Fold these 4 entries.
Entry 1:
Amino acid sequence: MLRRPLNNYISVDCVIFGYNGQELQVLLVDRTLIDNSTGQPEFTDLTLTGNHIYEDETIEQAAYRVLFDLTGLKNVFLDQFKTFAHPDRLKKENDRKWLLHDGRDPDKRIVSIGYFALLATQNITLEWKGRNVKWVSVSEVGELAFDHNQILEEALIALRNKIKQEPIGFELLPEKFSLTQLQNIYEVILSTELDKRNFRKKIARMKYLIPTDEKQTGVSHKPARLYVFSREVYEKTKKELFDFTV
Amino acid sequence: MLRRPLNNYISVDCVIFGYNGQELQVLLVDRTLIDNSTGQPEFTDLTLTGNHIYEDETIEQAAYRVLFDLTGLKNVFLDQFKTFAHPDRLKKENDRKWLLHDGRDPDKRIVSIGYFALLATQNITLEWKGRNVKWVSVSEVGELAFDHNQILEEALIALRNKIKQEPIGFELLPEKFSLTQLQNIYEVILSTELDKRNFRKKIARMKYLIPTDEKQTGVSHKPARLYVFSREVYEKTKKELFDFTV
DNA sequence: TAATTAAGTGTAAAATCAACACTAACTATG
DNA sequence: CATAGTTAGTGTTGATTTTACACTTAATTA
């Protein structure tokens, strides 16, 4: 079956966040532009991952497709956070070359619907289907093509807001994890330090954190107990919170 | 100057919330489809407000333009909350007739970028520029055209989340307001009841609420003191909150 | 001037937050 | 095999915030 893009000028961009146990990372695509005449690489740019939306799929399905094509994973946490359509968003010199090379009119607008995804880095086999993708620490991301630095920035804001409201830290961890790992995720995302005892007291109040009998292995210190997140308990116990905080 | 739509199939939809002192309302457009052959009205549908995006404007500018055209107001609170693009979102019979009548292909997708706006109903002169718009209580909205019921639903969710985080209740009130009015806004939006004394204690801790010397007039009971919201104080005192609540 | 209506105000018990330091369990090394 | 190194794990106290709860005040209207 032939699937045509719904419209060349609408796409999804996925900010795929990963956590490797130390730092928050983002999955970037390394694109090299081949000069059509010489066949030589002209320049290389880093971009977020993204794609067109096909006629027969929802935007959410398009975002899941991008994720699956790059990581081989389904059932990934995914959240739409903002749509970008500034008329000048593609005015960098290299961006224009890219679009021309891609057969698109660089003076037309691209409306880009932003999603962010969360996954545990260790689950991923990269270079999936020949694409040249890599994890980059969020704190070390340099200049990206198009307006992707801005999109990443907004994704981070959305991620911070989300993690303050809902227990999505687990999405960045393997199924079994230690409390220190979980705390580290909050610290990294919120750029703050948390008190170990207070954090544990607070998280313990949430019933959805289930201790297992297993412990860390292969560490040269006291091994941590491993926990799992119970989505069932979470769904049961979540109640509307009326912290109209400000 | 000729302004052409950026793309017929991308639009902004504005969920314009208003508050009249009692209930939360939404501004709806009453559209009557005139049969091209007979010149007679074929049917009437209610929709949210919306429009195309022009080539030379940002989506945010397009949303402000929609707002201004309908209400004559600038400087309105406006927030992008979600983009809608389900392939089947325009499959109702009347929706198709409308799009045909409008010169559009009803089988093509319309990507609609949702904004919600907040304003005090009493500031508004309706029927602006001949458009047939009206306030409808949010709790009494019936079936809308297209997928506008779903968009309204998501706008309400976004509004509830927002008001729990930021002091935007003031946007629904005239410049000077009583504490009871403010409390009522929280109660209406969050569908809950709040204790008067506790609400006042909490809101008093926020320094941005400035009492004036004025009192309500024309009420047949003890008149309430009027307050104003100080944006300056708010900007100064807001600090990052680390309530990773859940 | 009495009735009606909504405004405005305080306290006490319970829950949560914030600050803070030591012991336990494992590995690696000498 | 003893020691050093490393991270896990745990409780208390004072300050702040939340929750629950009822009466007096100031205006209008009858």
Note: The helical segments of chain B are 59-71, 93-101, 148-165, 179-190, 196-205, 231-237.
Entry 2:
Amino acid sequence: MVTMKQIAERTGVSVSTVSLVMNHRDEGRVKPAIAAHVRAVADELGYRVNPMASSLRTNRTHILGFISEEVATTPYAGGMILGAQSAASQYGYMLITVSTDGGMDEDEEIEALQRYGADGFLYAKMSNRVTEVPRRLNDCPLVLVDATDPDGLVPSVEPDEYRIAYDATRRLLDAGCGRIAYVGCSEGGMIAQQGRLAGYRAAIEDAGRKFNERLVVNVLNNGPALEAVSDLFDWERPDGFFCFNDARAWYVYECAARRGLTVGRDLSVVGVDNHRVFAETLSPQLTTVELPHFEMGYWAAAKLISLIEDRSLDESEWPSTTAPMPPLDAGIPAKIHCRLIEKESVVR
Amino acid sequence: MVTMKQIAERTGVSVSTVSLVMNHRDEGRVKPAIAAHVRAVADELGYRVNPMASSLRTNRTHILGFISEEVATTPYAGGMILGAQSAASQYGYMLITVSTDGGMDEDEEIEALQRYGADGFLYAKMSNRVTEVPRRLNDCPLVLVDATDPDGLVPSVEPDEYRIAYDATRRLLDAGCGRIAYVGCSEGGMIAQQGRLAGYRAAIEDAGRKFNERLVVNVLNNGPALEAVSDLFDWERPDGFFCFNDARAWYVYECAARRGLTVGRDLSVVGVDNHRVFAETLSPQLTTVELPHFEMGYWAAAKLISLIEDRSLDESEWPSTTAPMPPLDAGIPAKIHCRLIEKESVVR
DNA sequence: CTGAAAGCGCTAACAT
DNA sequence: ATGTTAGCGCTTTCAG
């Protein structure tokens, strides 16, 4: 490991000068020629700061803690993490991901992160729910990802469920579907459900059609759900389906198979892909909406860093739409709509 | 943050004494009464070591790097991470997970981990392949998880594919299946395929049956695969299927649905669940084999720590079988067979 | 403009 | 058995 001392020796200046140069605080304080020389030698020797050592003085580790209890079970958590990591490394931070498999160990893990001096935290869920924030995080810079806190005090990045549903439904309309059903979610606390239903309804009505309650079924992810979808099939004969998630799209798929119908020919399905079932298995047959996990992670981390560094962030560049949806049944996941929910933030 | 200095002041001893006590190096060096007092005060004040500070002297951060390029795409990566994390925290280590989405950034991320002083690395894949280890990791303590290095020099933890297949097939035999097919993998470099096929064959033959080549199809995960399985269905009429993974089990499922057959009644399927398709969607219908990701992560981390600390590890307690398989079609994922592949290790 | 010096929290020789 | 001292690599006054 090459240290500042070594650079100082090689260049004949003092460590403090090297420090100034390496931290880009040399403007008008170090003679440009010297600064250049120092930089050259540092490059040559392959100098890298020792974050541990500097954190001792500065109380900044450039470590971000990413806490999620669902990394273990949902594949798309990876996207969020990748996004957050990408922003982190862009700003010179390191992301420490901690998976807290349920409650007990969570507090301990957060404590460990704090011991290691994390400068701030990302607290993530895999589907937007009202989420109690662990007390231990109360006085740290904090951003929620795909989650909402009960008091509306913590900044968060969430998908724009309304627009997701609106566009998905619009897509089915464009594809010429006459009777479009919504297979929603009846589980409590799922923030997405309201927005999705509203978006679905708005798209239908904006197209000059009448909203038909009977084309909506809200189900849980279990046995009775299959029956509910089956009944929907027989009674309403929809030719287009917007599904809350892939588990629900699966019921549609199964019902179709049992009736000798082919998705993509006899009926169209657009669903939100939460568990990669679409991507891994059904993608050839279904059009999927992939939530912008990467973007959510990215912007959440960017926001967090701005909080930590007390900078402002140019939120105008944030994507409200990250990509247009692909043609129906093309099987290419679409990333759409990531909206930032800005809240009064708890600083440091 | 409470420091050793504060404890020293409160107890009227020197910092070095406190250090000795807090590191459990006080046996015979510090008077028991004093040690107890120090500990009491430390407890009271809620003292926690500052790992950054001690790492500066000791060159040990108690940080483990977990590197995987597939965390982003495979849900079960979470299990590995959880396992590794669990072992880490048990031994007083912190796990830093880094997802390297493909090649380029990988080297950078590893470099960052090394700057942060990681004591050792776990390098993981999500399905056992021959894997070139990044050069940068060459001189670090390193353990592979679900991966094999080309030269056989790096210690690794891998699933016992033979036993997995043997037991899965055995299960189908026990269920009374007469014609058991194997839907395997024709992709190159998949170490699991050989073991699985061998295990399948051995189970068949040990049951006094004749191995029938025509009941084996090895396919890729794509369109022609469905046709191949479809042909298998029509030509050989199997009543039991052992599937390489869930994507392949899906083909079986679809073929059955199209023929009006019900899995779990007209035919039995046991498959390895790589992508949670089973767990999330098909579990009511299929018996699944869930690879012991948690255990692999756990033991890999434990092994790594023993390497770092130059301790030996009691490998006799390692689980060769972690749980018996559940009754057929119960839909409960089974964790089976995790074998440690011990290699000549590259030390520190 | 540059350097000397102090100190972040902790560990480890070396004294006592 | 305990304290003194030096120093890990870096940042940051403060003098010059």
Note: Residues 13-17, 20, 28-31, 34, 53, 55-59 of chain A lie near DNA strand C (CB under 10 Å from a C1').
Entry 3:
Amino acid sequence: MSEPEKQFADFLRSKGLKFTPERREILRKIFATHEHFDVETLFEKLKKGGERISLATIYRLVPLLIESGMIRQATRCEGHVTYEHVFGHKLHYHLVCVRCGKIIEFRDEGIERLLMQVCDKYDFTVIDHRLGVRGICSACREE
Amino acid sequence: MSEPEKQFADFLRSKGLKFTPERREILRKIFATHEHFDVETLFEKLKKGGERISLATIYRLVPLLIESGMIRQATRCEGHVTYEHVFGHKLHYHLVCVRCGKIIEFRDEGIERLLMQVCDKYDFTVIDHRLGVRGICSACREE
DNA sequence: ATTTACCTGAGAATGATATTCAATTACACC
DNA sequence: GGTGTAATTGAATATCATTCTCAGGTAAAT
Ligand SMILES: [Mn+2]
Ligand SMILES: [Mn+2]
Ligand SMILES: [Zn+2]
Ligand SMILES: [Zn+2]
């Protein structure tokens, strides 16, 4: 059993919930790549892989995946919600090209530090934060 | 005519569009306060004010308000989209309390500077960016 | 074997947003 | 002040993602 599976199974057990075959398959598909994803494409992938797991099951699992720290909502730049891995990934931010959709991920400890100073100043307890930049990537600008 | 009205009227004219009474009322209601808003509450406010402007008209106006630089999408923390003023407001970021919904706005030039450095490094042309922190405000933490 | 709590797929329901359409309006030109 | 034209409107309808309902399943605990 892979690391995320172990962790997630533990999380479910600790809440009296079950690590069912459906849940395992969904989790595997999510961690099979490192890309951001949305529910619909995840569903399509599972279907292509021969699974017959319903959309409802995926939608029901998402809040548990978030609560357990497996995934989180990614920076929103489209009409629907997308997710990204948390487990096994350092905190990072995004540059999103509005023309081609490419996503550049980056870290910046300076920004993180300044941000924590601000939160201290306002006596604000951070749960989570996100930073996204919309713009045009260099490839798209050439044209 | 107030500043935002002038600007927006100019914008519309430059595109061969019209600054109708409905559009004026919507714009006025938006700039009557400094709060973030969503389409539904804006609609309710207009209705309470005696206006009978349809939801569709508001939804149709939003993209024009964004394109003209009057408003932009605010940091998303709920299921539906909210907006905030751009016109007359400096760039700022948000601390959002997930318990009481309070929003603390702040500026940080240090963060802005570091972010622009990152964008330079990736040769990325910024259109827009947003930074939001979810957490618990000090008042809510007391309890 | 019975109980109990949890899970599932299918489809219906919901809710935000977008679109259609027929009627109205604003503006430019006469 | 009329007229033509394109933009605009409200109401109704459609769309799309997400959530819920319901009628069976499952699996462990008693
Ligand atoms: Mn990412
Ligand atoms: Mn704001
Ligand atoms: Zn691009
Ligand atoms: Zn609070």
Note: Chain A has six helices and five strands.
Entry 4:
Amino acid sequence: MKPGSKNGNISDVLIKKNIKPSYQRIKVFEYLLGTDSHPTVEQIYSDLVNEIPTLSKATIYNTLNLFEGAQLARVITIEENETRYDACIEEHGHFKCENCGKIYDFPVNLDNLVSGNGILENFKVNEKNIYFKGICSKCLNNKSNKQEGKNGTGK
Amino acid sequence: MKPGSKNGNISDVLIKKNIKPSYQRIKVFEYLLGTDSHPTVEQIYSDLVNEIPTLSKATIYNTLNLFEGAQLARVITIEENETRYDACIEEHGHFKCENCGKIYDFPVNLDNLVSGNGILENFKVNEKNIYFKGICSKCLNNKSNKQEGKNGTGK
DNA sequence: TATATATTTATAAAGATTATAATTTTGTAA
DNA sequence: TTACAAAATTATAATCTTTATAAATATATA
Ligand SMILES: [Mn+2]
Ligand SMILES: [Mn+2]
Ligand SMILES: [Zn+2]
Ligand SMILES: [Zn+2]
């Protein structure tokens, strides 16, 4: 790796997908890769605007749509009007805690569901999504104690 | 059943959930029970407004939120900004065809996923959702023929 | 019937995403 | 380097979905 190209690997991933590695795109991708919080557009924007004061929210939308199309990121729609993004495109499930709002990953294998299934047998499956809702163990332990603040959505 | 109360059974279901069976609520519930199309708010409204000319879209939203809370209907969020509803609350999966937009049901049992799963073992799971995307068999057969119109979303 | 309560309606407000056009950046060739 | 063209970013307007609010209507009770 050449000196001064610390983001060489990230750039290369974008280039391989025919996406020009602009400063903003690298930063967004880097941000997604560095978190497991499944952030919303708002969260990505408000964090990155500190580093990039001229950043526009439209760029976040453009970039995420670009990544989605190139399958560099995955859209997570657990709640309506709260689109989240995940740079981990390996098959896995999501669990959203209805108390603290945190979204957890969990391992899952859905291949057997498709093969043994009557109707899906003749369908072409391009994308598989699974998510659960409930209360996470941390919140279960705090249940008799003080109420956790909010549910993470601000609603 | 008393004569003139053709919707007695539907009313009773609502009453059992402590929901007063108003004319509008009965019509919305009846509509949901009578379709397997997983309709959007817009579709429910535009169909029912023919029967109920004074109907307001706010009533549809109010009613569906009420049904959701009472677990008489299930929210399906496959695409962002396209919330759909399903009166079938039995556990099942959904498949959305990316070509014709139709949403199919498919049987699925997710209990084994929870029990064998490390992280979920200590969580309280209240709701399970699974949906796939791809191309349905009907569209696969038409693929070399004329292109099917739209993807059903109007986008 | 009179009155209180609940529901529906119409409309405004809020929030998220997309569309548009101007500005800025990047790449290329003279 | 400079000039030009293409692409990306930005700011902002427009659109769309959902929620909030208050007035009007319907329902239940005394
Ligand atoms: Mn994830
Ligand atoms: Mn269904
Ligand atoms: Zn929690
Ligand atoms: Zn199809």
Note: Chain B touches chain A through 40 residues (CB under 8 Å).
